[in-house]
Amino acid sequence: MLIAWPGHPLEAHLKGTLRVYRKLFEKHITQAVAHRLKHQGDEASLSEAKEAIAAAVALHDIGKAMKHYQTRAHKPSFYLHELYSAHTYSKLAKLLDISPLLSDICTLAVVLHHHSMRSLGTLAIESKRITGGSYHPEAHSIAAEALKEAEVKPPPELEDIMANPVHQADIRELIAKLTREARTKPGKMKLATLVTGPLSISDVIDASQNRRGWPTAFTKHIQKVYQGGYRGLSANTPSPQSHSPTPI
Q1: What's the pLDDT at 247?
Q2: Any bridge partners for residue 135, and if so which?
Q3: Residue 216's pLDDT is what?
Q4: CATH of 3-200, one of 1.10.3210.30, 1.10.3210.10, 3.40.50.1820, 3.40.50.620
Q5: Helices and strands: H and E segment counts in the chain
Q6: pTM exceeds 0.90 for this model
Q7: CA-to-CA distance for 155 and 51, rounded, in angstroms?
Q8: Domain locations in the chain?
Q9: What count of other Cβ atoms lies within 10 Å of the Cβ of residue 39?
Q10: Torsion angles phi and psi, residue 98, rounded to 5
Q11: Residues 6+ apart with CB under 8 A from 107
């Protein structure tokens, strides 16, 4: 069994994060992204935006399925796993015929879902530490099941993506491209934020419900909001007195 964290199966976390995202955000975020894409000259439909974002949420932590992370699961460190996740998502997006702009937005969201800990600039520097490697043999079935949960049909080529080695040069090329795009096209970065925030929150909520040592005061507060849906998001909602870092 591959893990997202000790005691928390990776497949369960990917599906759990997706369920939270759907309950709290999917309808509103899909509409907002599709609407703003039109202003950028991208004619992605609501269904196309929905599929692209749901696939990104479903695969946001698939990078944790790399062999070198899972072989030390007794003392876990998934540092920079989001780079592998983003690389895998960017390849999937081409197979799903997701438009380049929408693909970049969702890839940025995946790579920045730990933005409170690692900025894009930091990731560009730290990507030099990426050694590359291969996915665990179970990674393909986990990715496929997560995509099915997202109502995205896994393309046959997904198996090849998960079977082929991931090279450091490919990771660094992707991060360099995203960094360049974020710097020269700030509108794209703003659009990516629409997806990054909901993804990060959904990730934290599922982790807080399933990992030993959670929840803290901060995640208890988030869970309360989650249980109430959007009704919990009001100006009268008190701010938590302490907070916890995003799970890695």
Answers
A1: 46
A2: 66
A3: 63
A4: 1.10.3210.30
A5: 12, 2
A6: no
A7: 13
A8: 3-200
A9: 9
A10: -75, 135
A11: 56, 86, 89, 90, 93, 174, 178
